[in-house]
Amino acid sequence: xxxxxxxxxxxxxxxxxxxxxxxxxxxxxxxxxxxxxxxxxxxxxxxxxxxxxxxxxxxxxxxxxxxxxxxxxxxxxxxxxxxxxxxxxxxxxxxxxxxxxxxxxxxxxxxxxxxxxxxxxxxxxxxxxxxxxxxxxxxxxxxxxxxxxxxxxxxxxxxxxxxxxxxxxxxxxxxxxxxxxxxxxxxxxxxxxxxxxxxxxxxxxxxxxxxxxxxxxxxxxxxxxxxxxxxxxxxxxxxxxxxxxxxxxxxxxxxxxxxxxxxxxxxxxxxxxxxxxxxxxxxxxxxxxxxxxxxxxxxxxxxxxxxxxxxxxxxxxxxxxxxxxxxxxxxxxxxxxxxxxxxxxxxxxxxxxxxxxxxxxxxxxxxxxxxxxxxxxxxxxxxxxxxxxxxxxxxxxxxxxxxxxxxxxxxxxxxxxxxxxxxxxxx
Length: 427
Ligand code: LLP
Prior knowledge:
Layout: E1 4-7, E2 10-13, E3 16-17, H1 18-25, E4 29-33, H2 34-47, E5 54-59, H3 66-74, E6 78-81, H4 84-92, E7 100-102, H5 109-117, E8 122-125, H6 128-141, E9 145-152, E10 174-175, H7 176-188, E11 192-198, H8 209-227, E12 234-236, H9 256-274, E13 277-280, H10 284-287, E14 291-302, E15 307-311, H11 320-324, E16 330-332, E17 343-348, E18 357-364, E19 372-375, E20 397-401, E21 404-409, H12 414-419
Parallel strand pairs: 4-20, 5-6, 5-13, 6-7, 7-8, 8-9, 9-10, 9-11, 11-12, 12-13, 15-17
Antiparallel strand pairs: 1-2, 2-3, 4-14, 14-15, 14-19, 16-19, 17-18, 20-21
The structure holds ligand LLP.
């Protein structure tokens, strides 16, 4: 459920008509709903209610907007980050270092130093060379780095190949067969304090079965370690729960409550017995339906047997369709009459690539130049993956709260864009 609804025939973000935002800020623009962000965080958190010791660390890569992070920080959320930049975003939004989990397969010693300085909750370490590097950094600083080893459970997440991370052929995690050895090595390292195990098997999962299989593997691993006298303070299950992108289908991804039941069945008694904390790293589930990309139709072009809807947003603003053939519902801001004739459009942007296509032969009501349209479910991996390709200004962001809204990231001016470049004086 989200708060982008038609009222009196006009699409609103909460109580703000989207046309008002387009008027004030221009298009394209990302618009986020505070109430939706809050609702999704709460629904997810409540789904895990059977784990009293839990921390929900929002995956900042899904949406790094300081305003969105500040909304979540106020609810008590932690952050899952994969770079110093994301770490700094979390801190700037009011999420303290002790609520930050530092993930990622290629953390540099500088990033490790930064994490330690900020009192990071835990580094999720993905290889023995990384463990050694972290040990060296920690020893140099005279501290012990809290570490969870990310295991690769070799489970097929049954999602898009580019966002599947839990198979042995993926670059992520330490193979389950090597975890015990890595734990032993960690125990001998003076700069490492082993806190637990972590995993993340992929994103946009629409089936609970891979989660169940992966959690069961984590449980087995944790039990084996326990039998060796190694107790774990934390089990980190990663993120990955999918969201509905296509309103026209009735196939809905599992609910957080059902996800919580799967976690409970696999790990509930174990964590209660051992006192371990559960950590979760949802990104998409919290942010996706809390954001839309608002765009304007620039031209409607009749091609040979095809009609192109040319928008002022492009693949650089919302990369998911070009990169993953992802579907995003597209809706007119002015509600179409029920009897409007529906016809196919190829929905494209102005970027000079054939791949700059949001949708092929998409059934839509009649649209004309100047009309406003909204891509739904664009709050996760939308703005955070945007670029200035074709020197298109980075798409701005707006946060709506009831009947008020604020520009939370203004559109850069062309002067700002050009002023970042330098021409060497020897040219
Ligand atoms: N934790 C780790 C270690 C991750 O790598 C990810 C996402 C998450 C948590 C959050 O997963 P989520 O709950 O959002 O599924 N750009 C792609 C998605 C890439 C996801 C990468 N890792 C897309 O637009 O679909």
